[in-house]
Amino acid sequence: MSLYYVQKYLYELNRSPMVQESYRADPPASIDSFAGNDDRRLTAEERSALVAPDIGKLYHLGVNGQILMHFAAFHGIEWADYLERMRDGIRSHGPVREGVYALTTDLLEPSP
Amino acid sequence: MPLVFAGVCSHAPGITGRADLADPELRDGLYAAFDQMREHLEAVKPDAVVIIAAEHFANFFMNNMPSFAVGMAEHYEGPIEDPEWLKIPKFVAPGNRDLSSRIITEVMQTVDVAYAEEWLFDHGIAVPLSFLTPGFDVPIIPANINCQGPPLAPLSRAWAFGEAIRRAADGVPERIAVVGTGGISHWPATPDSGKINEEWDRDFLDRWCRNNRDELLDYDDLSVYADAGQGGFEIRTFLAISAAAAGAKGTVHYYQPIPIFAVGCTTATYQL
Asked: What is the C-alpha to C-alpha distance for residues B83 and A82, in angstroms, rounded to an integer?
């Protein structure tokens, strides 16, 4: 479930000036106040990627581009650079791990 | 009052946000097409515009994802994105809470919709409105179809939603326009951003103009994802407009792939 929480943190950051301010002030504290110490919510790998920010790792983890692109813009990452960081993420870490970009028949086909 | 306008257009954020990176001739051609659509819309004097978009995790997330949602507020703020990124300044668009409520009540007779008394407009609505109602002076009723977080509503339900919107619009005394936004083939915000399947788009638009329900529902999401990207899921908004047009035939006024905008940029209307 933790891709859900990675995306949820970014969803809240994207839409809330208050969360943006708390992230700017202290990224790890902002993430901790969202997820606590619960690694079922956010693993250490995910927290680290959110703090760095490691766009390529977040893409590999499965974050939807429609959420990720705003996080990149928030960090002043230009469009072409954003695209390249995602490519680097795949080169470094392998294919997208889960989510819409790792589509399987389970996700889209109706149940029999 | 019978529906006064049914049209569709692209909503990609690059259309405004990356305008300076586009070939000026292509960009200006698209902007002129949007301008013509604005003139058409103004000429029919709508009392409200129902804009059926596919938003992108601005208001709706997987904690509670509606298939269909309609706004019911007196005003809506936008854009949710950084104005410097989208190149659309902050705005407040008027709504009409009472009209929204009447429309939602009628839609609910056949389609189970969520309603939202607050709604931040993302590029799916902000980009089209910046061209079609640049003064933000016409009441807007936003509607959303989940095209982002699977499981997605079946195409047949998107069709039913469009039919319900038409029935609701016809049943109110106000002059209602409907606009669908999004699509067509694209791989948004991923390393494949800029890839466009022109053949797929043109085939889809041919079907859209013919407005034959069987043809328009003859898509499965796995094939759509393979051929048209995640962006192809947004055909749901175009289908809803097809259904709302109740058999009318359509005309594509503008179609041009513009890779830096990530989509085959489109404006099209039905002859009601």
From this structure: 18
B218-254 pLDDT, tens digit per residue, is 999 999 999 999 999 999 999 999 999 999 999 999 9
Q: Model confidence over A8-41: pLDDT tens digits?
A: 999 999 999 999 999 999 999 999 999 998 888 9
**DSSP code string of A42-89:** --HHHHHHHHTT-HHHHHHHT--HHHHHHHHHHTT--HHHHHHHHHHH
* CATH number where A80 lies: 1.10.700
Domain interval for residue B135: 1-19+30-190+220-228
- Judged by a CB distance cut-off of 8 A, whether residue B156 touches chain A is no
For residue A88, what are the domain limits? Answer: 2-104
Output the pTM of the full model. 0.95
- Cβ–Cβ gap A108/B150 under 8 Å: yes
Å between A67 CA and nearest CA of chain B: 7
Q: Cβ B80–A79 below 8 Å, yes or no?
A: no
Domain count of chain A? 1
